[in-house]
Write a structure and sequence with these properties.
With 493 residues, the chain is mainly α. Helix content is 74%, strand content 0%. Among the domains are: 1-52, no CATH class; 62-247, Alpha Horseshoe (Serine Threonine Protein Phosphatase 5, Tetratricopeptide repeat), CATH 1.25.40; 268-367, Tetratricopeptide repeat domain (Serine Threonine Protein Phosphatase 5, Tetratricopeptide repeat), CATH 1.25.40.10. Helix 3 runs antiparallel to helix 4, helix 16 (269-281) packs antiparallel against helix 17 (285-298) and helix 19 (319-332) packs antiparallel against helix 20 (337-349).
Length: 493
Amino acid sequence: MRSCEKPQTNTGKNACATHHLVAQAFLPGWVVERALAAICVLLLCGCGATRSVPALPNVDASKFQRDIAKSVNDALAEAKKYPNDAAHTLRLCMVLHAYEQYQAAGQCYARAHALDPGDFAALYCWGQASAAEGNYAAAAERLRHALAIRPESVPAQLKLAEVLTDSGDASQSLDLYKRILSKSPDEARAHFGLGRALGGDAAVEEFRKSLDLFPRYGAAQFALASAYRRKGDETKAQEILRNYDRDKLLLPPLNDPEMASVRSLNLSAGALLQNAANQAIEGRLEEAVSLYERAVAADRKLTRAYTDLISLYGRLGRNSQAEDAYSQAVALDPNETDAYYNFGVFCFERGRMTEAKAAFENAVRLQPHHAEALNNLGAIFEQQGKWDQASALYRRAIDTNASYPLAHFHLGRIYANQKKYALAIEELERSLDPKTESTPAYLYALAAIHARAGNRTRAIEAMREARKQAEARGQTQLIASIDRDLALLEPKL
């Protein structure tokens, strides 16, 4: 960051001190805190000082594709048209940042910050760009200044902690991650970052926690698998990485509007694809579809986009579009496993079992250890009353992924129907880890099996725990069923 000029006379310094004292004397506490944060930022550049404003960067947009070049040129023209307007300059910064022009973006962020020293977005995004460029010292400085303006920003705290880890300052990084987790214990990125900062065996538990919270966290999958490889457990490492190619770019949801704005400005097909996947994970299905459609408009050979659209169109009830997306995906790549799997789910949910079975069989043919496809094939055989075939498929799914709650639940239910209660209870207990939205239902099923086996006390205990967890998740229908069965069981104690 450019060093700021000091005030030329004592008048500026005294004015700053006076403002400080007035704030302390007459304003409420929360206003004082915000005022002091703003004053802190102003002091970084010298209160009352005449500050030079860096020039806009020279940008050669001819090296970009036509639509990208237009975005850059339009933003540059607006910034030049309004040279003293920080917002127009910031938009140019973000466009350059979006297309990974980090050096030019940094020069632009310096100008935006000089025009408006109290703007959080310019400092925060400048820190992000500096980190992407590998300039960790500058990134840390800018992120700290951003946090002086907005101390409670979780994205800025997470990025600062990450930068500190990357720069080798593990102790400060650890303290910051722990502080984040003390207020946000379910922040998957913080658990992952804490694992990186801890290193060694201590990291494993934190990587596990991050994946429990967000199973499709690609970076956490890779980190946990690497930890098992160091222990010599290649089988476990491969189990963890079974979906890594699909998930490697995915991150847990984070309310980070500034960087979301940066990403939204990247119109390249690859960026649209990644942004669409993140929108889908966060439940914004229409937005995800729109981004995928823009991606395939830019590149008709994006098999991954068509594959994901099968599922999204299906969830939105756009059946014909889902089928078209499936046809496009397998035409582009007949070995695209997830296209068959997604189409299998689409057909299963519509009762088209013959087509669903064929699709899942294709997925398993291409990827014999596809646990989800094996499980779903098992469900089809179970519906047909073919319990032995279904059990064999559920076991194959569990062999592929020992921590697969749904397969354990299905296998446990088959054992219960066969009155093999001890085996059923064992499988249902294994379905409880890791916890998912379905855990209360699995506990309820476990309670029912205990009741059928004559273990009334254990049944009531499991049912009460199921109710507690269902209540925490707002699962009102399940709570009503549990209450009905508890009323039948409890008087018999």
